[in-house]
Specification:
Belongs to the immunoglobulin superfamily. L1/neurofascin/NgCAM family. Interacts with SHTN1; the interaction occurs in axonal growth cones. Interacts with isoform 2 of BSG. Its main location: membrane. Keywords: Cell adhesion, Cell membrane, Cell projection, Developmental protein, Differentiation, Disulfide bond, Glycoprotein, Immunoglobulin domain, Membrane, Neurogenesis, Phosphoprotein, Repeat, Signal, Transmembrane, Transmembrane helix. The longest helix is centred in the C-terminal third of the chain and has 26 residues, at about 1190-1215. The strands form 27 sheets. Strands 3, 6, 7, 10, 11 and 12 form a six-stranded mixed sheet that branches. Strands 1, 40, 43, 46 and 47 form a five-stranded mixed sheet that branches. The chain is flat, with a radius of gyration of 60 Å. The two termini are about 120 Å apart. Mean pLDDT is about 80; it is low at about 1-90, about 920-925, about 1075-1085 and about 1220-1320. The protein is mainly beta and about 1300 residues long.
Length: about 1300
């Protein structure tokens, strides 16, 4: 229900007044104010007078009194109007002039150009327009080339048809008026220019010396709109700019230092004028660069600006550009600092290799001293700019349109600021205030215009204008003087639904003059304004912050002014807020992987329309039927196949009809870094260059390092090579290059995840040729004949020629001579002839090319060809160290007879057999080992090992040089003492009984002395070897015996047996026999086992007993293969019987038969096994029973039926003319022939229990070691300690090599006092 009441008597029974206003303080109009009344009031819409304005043309002067009378009726008019009248004027009602478009402040026109001065306004009655130029009113229709749109204020200017642009030059202003007032536009300046063109000029070539600086001028025609400058060549390609070559803000091209590659005849400056839309070219400039042999490095020198210091005025809100272009060699680097700050502002942008400092939009605190610092290796230069910031006028408080009641005091604010301080002027209806009739109620104060006790005829449009040297500012404001009753425009009984902890806004829009006062009351009629959470806006709206459930209820808005009071009721309902139970959190994922964001929300069930969705970059994230990128459910979002483009902020948004909440989380996608870009070369010197690049995306893993690669096309065949590595925070590298190369540079970044791709666009660089940096290596002088010397060296690789061609300057002379012999060749070798035998020469080889010689070469000593040595080792002595090792010493007295480089010595040896053979005079009955051995180096003694103990040897020596071998010296003979013997050559056992074994063996292959005895020890196989236990069970056996019976053994227990021989020196290695791993030898008791006579029901096994062997008990086993029986015993036999018959067999059947012997350890051993088939046929009852089986009958029937079906199919195929393919037939034949055989086993050998008894292992570790090689020592050269095999040949290697030590079995390891190993190496 509406609660409205009126206290004004005149308002009873009359329609309610209607209006609207929302601005602060009073019912203000918008920035573009409109006001009026309903169309029903149009008969009473009399025009309002403008304060101080002359009568409108065509209106009689006495109309002013009529208008004043109509104004007195204005409140009555409003009362008679529709109470729904609003400040948004309906069409056809009174409305003051209001601009919708104004002319631009600056317009530049060119010949054949068109321009538009915009001036559009609304108003009722319709507005009329007029223009002024340079402060004087003029009629646009009277100006040729200028037209005004019909009924509008916009002007069109055309400069064709002979209309010169200059006649339109001036400052223009537009006025829009109706009977309610006059609005005035801002001022517009028209600048007229002719078509830009370069003056005719002859551009002379610019000649400079390499390494100096120069400037190529552009000097484009001046224009109010500066052109864009481009430097191109005649192929319309941009001139490359870098830290060495820069284009200044004036358009000139500056070279910090010129290089030979800068020479070209077509540097063309192009100016693009955007106003007339034309591009003009300057005449090409030719730049000639003259080479120089010596660069003179230069410290930095300032080119732009050309004066010091500089003061610069920057305009607030506009860009600021400071330049610092410098010359120098090497190219200087430039940096900027702000003298009043620690670092430059974040808004500062450095361009042109730091030569240009740009601030896109200047702010007040950008003033101060800016200093550029340029430096290179030879000096530093500084330059200061002193920047002051000024500003065009800007608003502090702008005047606003308002409605006032008669008798109120009006204050129109116009507070502006700027630098310098702006001047403020006032106008009423476009007329300067000083030209308006004076009024004591009107007063101008700083920042405001005051009107006291206003009356209806004070309604007007008022202008405030401020200006300084940087610009001007204009505002139009309207004041309406009228009296209106209080009115609430907001409907009664509105319902407001809000959620708790939000702000509730209850509207109570009022209108009236004077402005009504508003108060809000609760259901208990208490003022809500007592609650600290409440705030009342000037338009009557109540704002209640952080509402709770208990705040719900009815609120009454009460409005009143001096004429009446009215009220409405608002209903407030408070709901539960939407809340997050689980919020999405920041996460990261690997490229190609997947991540999941979780988001769970709790809604108030009483609120309709709940929902949840995901957003990214303002776009809705949703699943797609085309791919599986996103998976969305009620509580999560999963993103698969992550790519770097997926990185960003993801927002979970939940909403109801009353509220919405959202939470965001960030996704980082990490992976290999992206490729670098923008590779540039700078600081280019002879063979050094600085490479810079722009880092690629690190993809959320810090860059650890950059690696610079190159491919070099002159010599590298495009092979990628690594040049250098720099830290990840350094996007540049100084590269040291080689002369005469063509490089393409690439950069690869690395982070913890991996490497980036190489950049796709390499930067190239070509280095100049130069003299070689080094000479060839491995220079040698050596003769291959006695009368020459061959000078050889390792040539320089082509990569190190540093030029297209390379030669070698070869010099030689006899040592201690002064005169050098010289020859120039392209490649080695150089042969020097007619030289004395083995004479020393000094040699030098120097690389040179067309650009100079390499460094001074080192002198190398060479020798002419060597002869046959005549020197022999003398005073040779032999010292026997032990049974296998000797020490040889000698002297070399006549070194001058070596006739070459002493390469070493050759030792010849011969073995004349053992001492036993000598005692029986058998030394010459058979050949013995002999051979030779080279000892490298200039040594005088050597230790040799590996000789055979108890043997006789003969030694000789000769001298070796690089060419030949000298004669042998006189031979010496020596004997080696006894040593320990080798293990017995064989060791066998035979089982006598469960507790006794018969042992047999053969003597050692190498007794190494006179055998004194054999020792036998044994232990149970499951016991560990123990020396004390073995000695307690050992037997001593005479050397003349080769067998032994071992008794009193534990039955069924395997043993481990040890047998060794002894000499006077001591025991040798034992032969170890493990009984549990052996089987008794059948051959000890049986010979020639075979099948004898076989009949229908019997068979016979025959064998030959071995003579002089014990009787062995065996068992005979039988198995029927035909009947698929298991093995069964059919009888016992002994080895002495010689045969065994098996009876009760069935005719025509197959059997397997075997002989089995029980081992001493309790296991069975198969001695022999074979197959046998009895003669005759299978008994009839067996055949009948087989044929009568049902399964057999069914099987045969199925076979017959299948054959019949196949025959029928073949007959049908032939009757239809079917033919077999010849190829198929051939293939069938081939397949039949090529069919592989079935898997069969042919005589496979199985190492199982059926393996015959074999010899046991010859050593403790069960391995048979190689016992020797041939008699030559050629394979063992290069050491001083040589070992012999047991057969007398040398084994092993020199001592000191591969960690092996010399000496025999009991050698003390004596070594030569001369370090022969070092000499050989």
């Amino acid at each position: 229900m509406s609660h409205r009441s009126g206290s004004a008597a005149g308002a009873a029974g009359v329609g309610e007044a209607a209006a609207a206003g929302r601005a602060e303080g009073r019912a203000r109009l918008s920035h573009k104010p409109q006001w009026g009344v309903h169309a029903a009031c149009s008969p009473f819409a009399a025009p309002l007078p403008r304060v101080g304005e002359r009568p409108w043309p065509g209106v009689p002067g006495e109309m002013a009194s009529m208008l004043a009378g109509l104004l007195m009726l204005w409140p009555l008019v409003l009362l008679l109007c529709d109470p729904a009248a609003s400040i948004e004027f309906p069409k056809g009602l009174l409305q003051p002039p209001e601009f919708t478009e104004q002319p631009d402040k600056k317009i530049v026109i060119f010949p054949n150009d068109e321009a538009t001065l915009k001036c559009e306004a609304t108003g009722n009655p319709p507005v009329k327009f007029r223009w002024t130029r340079d402060g004087r009113e003029f009629d646009p229709e009277q100006v040729l080339g200028m037209t005004q749109w019909n009924g509008r204020g916009t002007l069109n200017i055309t400069t064709n048809n002979g209309n010169t642009p200059t006649k339109f030059h001036g400052r223009y202003r537009c006025y829009a008026s109706n009977i309610l007032g006059t609005a005035m536009s801002s001022e517009s300046q028209i600048i007229a220019e002719s078509a830009p063109q370069w003056p005719k000029e002859k551009v002379a070539p610019i000649a400079v010396e390499e390494g100096t600086h120069t400037v190529l001028p552009c000097n484009p025609p001046e224009s109010a709109v500066p052109p864009k400058i481009y430097w191109l060549n005649n192929k319309i390609e941009h001139i490359t700019k870098d830290d060495r070559v820069t284009m200044g803000q004036d358009g000139n091209l500056y070279f910090a230092n010129v290089q030979m590659k800068d020479s070209r005849p077509d540097y063309i400056c192009n100016a693009h004028f955007q106003g007339p839309r034309i591009i003009i070219q300057k005449e090409p400039i030719e730049l000639k660069v003259f080479p120089t042999n010596s660069f003179s490095n230069q410290k930095p020198m300032l080119i732009v600006p050309d004066k010091m210091p500089n003061t610069y005025e920057a305009k607030q809100g506009e860009p600021l550009v400071l330049e610092c272009i410098v010359a120098g060699l090497p190219t200087p680097t430039v940096e900027w600092i702000h003298m009043n700050r620690l670092k430059l502002s974040d808004r500062v942008v450095l361009e042109n290799s730091n030569k240009t400092l740009r601030i896109p939009s200047v702010e007040e605190d950008d003033d101060g001293e800016y200093q550029c610092i340029a430096h290179n290796d030879h000096g530093t230069i500084r330059h200061s700019y002193y920047v002051t910031v000024e500003a065009a006028p800007y608003w502090i408080k702008e005047p606003e349109s308002e409605i006032f009641a008669p008798g109120e005091n009006v204050r129109l604010n116009c507070d502006v600021d700027g630098q310098p301080k702006p001047e403020v002027s006032w106008r009423i209806n476009g007329i300067p205030l000083e030209e308006v009739m004076p009024d004591p109620r009107r007063k101008v104060v700083p920042g405001a215009l005051i009107l006291n006790q206003v009356q209806p005829n004070d309604t007007a449009v008022i202008q405030c204008e401020a200006h300084n040297k940087h610009g001007s500012l204009l505002a139009n404001a309207y004041i309406l003087i009228v009296r209106l009753p209080a009115e609430i425009l907001t409907p009664d009984g509105l319902v407001y639904n809000v959620v708790e902890n939000q702000t509730a806004t209850l509207h109570c829009e009022t209108f009236g003059a004077p402005r009504p006062t508003v108060n809000w009351l609760t259901e208990g009629m208490y003022s809500i304004m007592e609650d600290y959470r409440s705030f009342l806006f000037t338009n009557g709206t109540l704002q209640l912050e952080k509402v709770q459930r208990e705040d719900a209820g009815n609120f009454t808005c009460f409005a009143e002014n001096d004429q009446n009071n009215v009220s409405i009721v608002a209903h407030l309902f408070v709901k539960g807020a939407t809340q997050f139970e689980v919020e999405p959190t920041n996460t990261e994922g690997e490229k190609g992987g997947h991540v999941t964001f979780h988001c769970k929300v709790v809604f108030d069930d009483t609120i309709a329309g709940p929902g949840l969705e995901w957003h990214r970059k303002g776009q809705l994230v949703k699943e797609s039927a085309d791919n599986d990128k996103y998976f969305i459910n009620d509580t999560s979002l999963t993103i698969t196949d992550l790519d770097y483009s997926d990185q960003g902020i993801y927002t979970c948004r939940a909403w109801t009809a009353l509220d919405s909440v959202e939470k965001s989380a960030k996704l980082w996608v990490y992976g290999n870094p992206g490729p670098v870009s923008n590779l540039e070369l700078s600081e280019q010197q002879d063979w050094q260059v600085k490479l810079t690049w722009t880092p690629g995306d690190d993809h959320n893993r810090p860059i650890k390092e950059y690696t610079v690669f190159c491919d070099e096309s002159n010599f590298g065949q495009g092979k990628m090579e690594k040049l250098t590595t720099v830290p990840g925070n350094q996007p540049w590298a100084t590269l040291h290059l080689s002369p005469f190369r063509k490089y393409n540079f690439y950069v690869k970044a690395r982070n913890d995840h991996g490497d980036s791709p190489l950049n796709s666009h390499p930067v190239s660089y070509v280095t100049n040729p130069a003299a070689p940096k080094r000479n060839p290596s491995d220079v040698k002088g050596k003769g291959n004949e006695t009368t020459n010397m061959i000078i050889a060296w390792t040539p320089l690789p082509r990569r190190e020629w540093n030029a297209p061609m390379l030669k070698y300057l070869v010099q030689w002379r006899p040592r201690n001579h002064e005169q050098w012999n010289t020859v120039e060749v392209e490649r080695p070798p150089v042969v020097v002839t007619d030289t004395p035998v083995f004479s020393p020469y000094e040699i030098k080889v120097q690389a040179q090319n067309g650009f100079g010689k390499g460094p001074e070469p080192h002198t190398t000593l060479g020798y002419s060809g060597e002869g046959v040595p005549e020197a022999v080792p003398e005073n040779m002595g032999i010292m026997v160290i032990n049974s296998t090792t000797i020490k040889i010493s000698w002297t070399l007295l006549h070194r001058q007879k070596i006739f070459g480089h002493l390469r070493g010595f050759k030792i010849y040896y011969s073995n004349f057999g053992t001492m036993a053979e000598h005692s029986h005079r058998q030394v010459y009955l058979h050949p013995h080992p002999h051979g030779d051995l080279e000892i490298e180096g200039d040594v005088s003694q050597v230790t040799l090992g590996g000789f055979r103990p108890w043997s006789r040897y003969r030694l000789q020596m000769s001298v070796l040089n690089g060419q030949a071998e000298g004669p042998r010296n006189e031979a010496l003979e020596f004997n080696t003492p006894e040593g320990v013997p080798s293990p017995p050559a064989s060791f066998h056992l035979d089982c006598i009984s469960d507790t006794a074994l018969k042992l047999e063996w053969t003597p050692p292959k190498f007794p190494n002395g006179k055998l004194l005895r054999y020792k036998l020890a044994f232990q149970q196989a499951n016991q560990t070897a123990n020396q004390t236990a073995l000695e307690s069970t050992s037997y001593s056996i005479s050397a003349e015996h080769n067998d032994f019976n071992l008794t009193d053994l534990a039955p069924h227990t395997p043993y481990k047996l040890y047998l060794w021989a002894e000499t006077s020196v001591g025991p040798g290695e034992p032969f170890v026999l493990e009984e549990h791993a052996m089987r008794e030898s059948v051959n000890l008791s049986f010979m020639n086992i075979s099948l004898g006579e076989t009949g229908k029901n019997y068979t016979t096994i025959v064998w030959t007993p071995r003579p002089n062997q014990r009787d062995v008990e065996i068992k005979v086993h039988l198995m029927s293969k035909t009947d698929k029986e298991s093995w069964r015993t059919v009888g016992d036999a002994s080895s002495s019987q010689g045969s065994f018959s098996i009876a009760d067999l069935q005719p025509g059947k197959q059997y397997r038969v075997r002989l089995v012997k029980a081992h001493r350890t309790g296991e069975d051993q198969t001695i022999w096994e074979t197959e046998v088939e009895t003669s005759g046929v299978v008994p009839e009852d067996f055949q009948k029973s087989f044929a009568a089986e049902g399964w057999f009958i069914g099987f045969v029937s199925a076979i017959v039926l299948l054959i019949l079906v196949l025959v029928l199919l073949c007959f049908i195929k032939r009757s239809k003319g079917g033919k077999y393919s010849v190829k198929d037939k051939e293939d069938t034949q081939v397949d039949s022939e090529a069919r592989p055989m079935k898997d069969e086993t042919f005589g496979e050998y199985s190492d199982n229990e059926e393996k015959p008894f074999t010899s046991s292992q010859p050593s403790l570790n069960g391995e048979i070691k190689a016992l020797g090689s041939d008699d030559s020592l050629a394979d063992y050269g290069g050491s001083v300690d040589v070992q012999f095999n047991e057969d007398g040949s040398f084994i092993g290697q020199y001592s000191g090599q591969k960690g092996k030590e010399g000496g025999g079995n009991d050698s003390s390891g004596a070594t030569s006092p001369t370090n022969v190993v070092t000499a050989l190496e």
